[in-house]
Amino acid sequence: MTPEEFRRAGHELIDWIADYRERIESLPVRAQVAPGEVNSLMPDTPPETPLEFAALLDELERVVVPGVTQVQHPMHFGWFPSNASLSSVLGDIACAGLGTLGISWESCPALTEVEEAACDWMRQLAGLSDEWQGTIHDTASTACLTAMLAARERASGYSEFDGGLQACDRPLVVYASDQAHSSVVKAVLLAGFGYDNLRLLPSDPATRALPAETLARAMADDVAAGRQPAAVIASLGTTGVTAFDPVGALVEAAAAHGAWVHADAAMAGSALLLTECRPLFDGIDGADSISWNPHKWIGTILDTSLFYVRDPQTLARVMSTNPAYLQSAEDGQVTQYRDWGIPLGRRFRALKLWFQLALDGPDAIRDRLRRDLANARWLADQVEATPDWTLVSPLTLQTVCLRHEPPGLEGDALDQHTKDWLARINRSGEAFLSPAQLDGRWFVRVSVGVESTTREHVARLWKLLQNAANESSLGADRHAN
Amino acid sequence: MTPEEFRRAGHELIDWIADYRERIESLPVRAQVAPGEVNSLMPDTPPETPLEFAALLDELERVVVPGVTQVQHPMHFGWFPSNASLSSVLGDIACAGLGTLGISWESCPALTEVEEAACDWMRQLAGLSDEWQGTIHDTASTACLTAMLAARERASGYSEFDGGLQACDRPLVVYASDQAHSSVVKAVLLAGFGYDNLRLLPSDPATRALPAETLARAMADDVAAGRQPAAVIASLGTTGVTAFDPVGALVEAAAAHGAWVHADAAMAGSALLLTECRPLFDGIDGADSISWNPHKWIGTILDTSLFYVRDPQTLARVMSTNPAYLQSAEDGQVTQYRDWGIPLGRRFRALKLWFQLALDGPDAIRDRLRRDLANARWLADQVEATPDWTLVSPLTLQTVCLRHEPPGLEGDALDQHTKDWLARINRSGEAFLSPAQLDGRWFVRVSVGVESTTREHVARLWKLLQNAANESSLGADRHAN
Predict the structure, then answer these.
(1) pLDDT > 80? residue B324
(2) Is B206 exposed, middle or buried (0-12, 13-18, 19+ CB in 10 A)?
């Protein structure tokens, strides 16, 4: 395709995207397709003759759009905010258009150095100490795995350079709370520690945070049994109920054993932009690594997962490769981001952050986050003030964890009721919410924070919740009769 | 940013990109900036007041463009072709504009199912057996790590679910040739096997391929010593000289020990599109996994790394997570790509492949690959026909491995000469090439295959090579006098 052909098609596509974002509220939030339905619309064999761009846009509309769960829809309250702010989309388009290659500093000095600058801007906005140096990973899952690999190597005396983890004589152990994200378990298993050496410690029943004493005791027990504490994951804003582990106290407990502390603030890290929220993160500067996804609440389009370390040397030692074909005269004077993570080739992701910060400005972002906190507070207040409705956990940020508990319903029957009214809403396409479990029982998470979600949308959701729960109760009654 | 603001800025950006791609030949190939120069142009603190889009484009021009090594430039012959075809760029822009979230089938059924279809189209175009099922990873580094993790778990009886790799009683061993890519070593070390359990076996001095007998012997030796062969990486198109391991024979040798065979065809896999090149990959259908990067020669913009497995169940068993908040009614009937790799959140990468195949068509892609093969052949012929110039390895695809060997120069002096004339060219900005080593001596790789590189560009390069080598020889003479 020539640049001129690209120019024409590109203008069509920009208009299509702008129109799409304008009409998003008219689309169902949850994709209404059945399993296999999208695939059945795709030809079984690859295209043979080239398609006109207009025809391809028609295909996009016909095949793809109905199969998209609209996380940019203002009535999306599921999982977590996954904003793709249009300012950051422009940065992503610039990245695509430039078509750069990031395999070494030499392959694109700007890719490396703009990433250094943008990560430092984000550090400053978050009020983190200037000891942190950052990079951008694809996701917090990858960041957590990277942290676990660094922790494993530090604790094992860099066993990768001799017998590997399989030659370690003392079992290495990792600690997290029972509220930690599934990616934490995955990272620990992939890093080779083994499930037997992962302690998912009981969180406090009221706050769902991991008490430092619990951690300290577990570590002492392991040491007494001949095992070695290698890493601690502090969950700062759990996925379930947005609980905050006391990271400062965990850092102190871990220090006694030289264990690596990874602060997983994937979703909630965005709250660091608000000074009034920073007490939740007290002591984070003592951790060894932090992950935080601007691609969630802040809205720098996926994949933009910040990963900060205080000691890049350890990371580079674990991850470094320096093959002959990548060597250049500047080696040693520059950052080689390939040594800060798993992939060799990297995209120019920093443009997304730069464009969003430059075009929207930090003030607008902070205002929006505060709006979302107030909207979540409003909804939590309605829940608390309404009979038969309960907050299953105190509101800490923008995720309201609630349950409708009609008199006489409990146990499995209550679970069934919860799943039933949730399914009614999700199936309707009018709003979308996620289920979760606490103490083995289901509840519903209302994650407020889509860029276009206003108070009116939250109020509309509250009506939907009440109607769906009532209909479900009536349906259950009818069924009982 | 509103959709209307995005529309206006988006049109400006499309024009900027089209203009940029049009004038790319007027820019130096290698970025001419010094370490730290780009960073020094970035403000030390984050933007405070929003910028107009036109002003941001000026910044992009002033700060970023001089810091880009132009891998889309027709005189780029470095590393490997890293084409970002404009047809695939449109797919990437569509991905950004849609702003989808891929954490489960439910979060975007189209993301999952178009990926299934696009990976299958590529499989068909490559002539691979229909036993393969594919997904898209960011890079071949990540794909190789994923393969090593699957291999480790299969060989250890899924130790991740109990004591981990650290509890394995027999050391697990991995095999590859001494020509394997640095990412192979990195993957093996990160997976925890340890360098002592990685056998980088001597390749054949003529073909640089790993003889199957060498592998079989090494495995037998390890078994005799109480160790367990866990994985073999077959390099199909090495980075240095594009050597091809005999994958069929390696598969046979590995089968005797139940070792996982990963076929690393990151760069050369694109040649599967040409039936005349398929004999190089003979037996690949017997491997356990394949990685192949359309983001290299084919030009589906980074990050598009295909990863195929024949047994997705094993992969899912190793990688699976199924937290409550991601569960939906369709689980069990659909593919959950989060269980095929490391990250939870995934971009809608399949759009890049779809757009490129639909807009350019496979015929045009195949024609271009054949053009590049012919151009490389032409250059290799010039080298062979010219006194003092040598091919250090037979040409297998599109990378010409050469050295200028003036009479009387050898050893370190020859190395110095090679590095000197290479640096002259790279510094000039007129063309860009990469160094590499073979048997401890430097040579220069000319990787032909940028989308816009014609025979004229290759002819111009050949003149540049001769001039630079002669100047270097003269410089050395003067220095000697």
Answers:
(1) no
(2) exposed
Render the burial of A152-179: b for 16+ CB within 10 Å, e for the rest: bbbbbeebbeebbbbbbeebbbbbbbeb
Q: What is the pLDDT of residue B478?
A: 54
Question: Which residue has tokens 């640049």?
Answer: A3
B177 vs A152: CA distance, rounded Å: 27
Strand order in the sheet with A76-77: A76-77, A432-438, A441-447, A399-404, A389-391
Q: Do residue B104 and residue B234 come from a single domain?
A: yes
Same domain? A104 vs A236: yes
State which of B329, B360, B391 marks the end of a domain.
Answer: B360
Residue B297 and residue B272 in contact, taking contact as beta carbons nearer than 8 Å: no
The CA-atom distances, in angstroms, between B125 and each of A46, B270, B306 are: 8, 10, 13
Q: Does residue A194 share a domain with residue A45?
A: no
Q: Range of A379's domain?
A: 362-480
Pairs of residues, one from chain A and one from chain B, whose beta carbons lie less than 8 Å apart: 515
Quickly list H helices, B307-361.
312-319, 350-360
Read off the pLDDT of residues A152-185 as tens digits, 9 standing for 90 and up: 999 999 999 999 999 998 999 999 999 999 999 9
**Residues contacting residue A426 through CB under 8 Å, at least 6 positions apart:** A29, A30, A432, A433
List, for residues A297-321, the tens digit of each pLDDT value.
999 999 999 999 999 999 999 999 8
The minimal CB distance from A196 to the residues B82, B162, B360 is found for B162
Element (H, E) at A232: strand A228-235
Domain end position, chosen among B360, B389, B404: B360
Regarding whether B336 and B380 lie in a shared domain, the answer is no
- Between CA A349 and CA B413 the distance in angstroms is 42
B203 and B129 fall within a common domain = yes
* pLDDT for B323: 79
Residue among B129, B151, B83 at smallest CA distance from B450: B83
The 8-class DSSP code of residue A60 comes to I
**B positions 359-388 inside 8 Å of A (CB):** 359-364
Verify whether the Cβ–Cβ distance A31 to B109 is below 8 Å: yes
Residue contact A106–B31, C-beta within 8 A: yes
Tokens describing residue A153: 């190597």
Q: How far apart are CA B388 and CA B448, in angstroms?
A: 22
**Cα–Cα dist B71/B76, whole Å:** 6
Task: Quote ipTM for the complex.
Answer: 0.97
Question: How far apart are the C-alpha atoms of B407 and B79, rounded to whole Å?
Answer: 28
Question: CB-based contact (8 Å) between A319 and chain B?
Answer: yes
Q: pLDDT grade, residue A477 (50/70/90)? A: low
* Number of separate domains in chain A: 3
Instruction: Determine whether the interchain pair B18/A10 forms a contact, defined as Cβ–Cβ distance below 8 Å.
Output: yes
Give B279-282's long-range contacts (Cβ < 8 A, gap of 24+).
Answer: B280/B236, B280/B237, B280/B244, B280/B396, B281/B236, B281/B244, B281/B247, B282/B246, B282/B247, B282/B248
How far from chain centre, in Å, is Cα A370? 19
SS3 of A410, please?
Answer: coil
Interface of A with B in 423-442 (CB under 8 A): 423, 434-437, 442
Report pTM. Answer: 0.97
Residues 6+ apart with CB under 8 A from A33: A66, A67, B109, B110
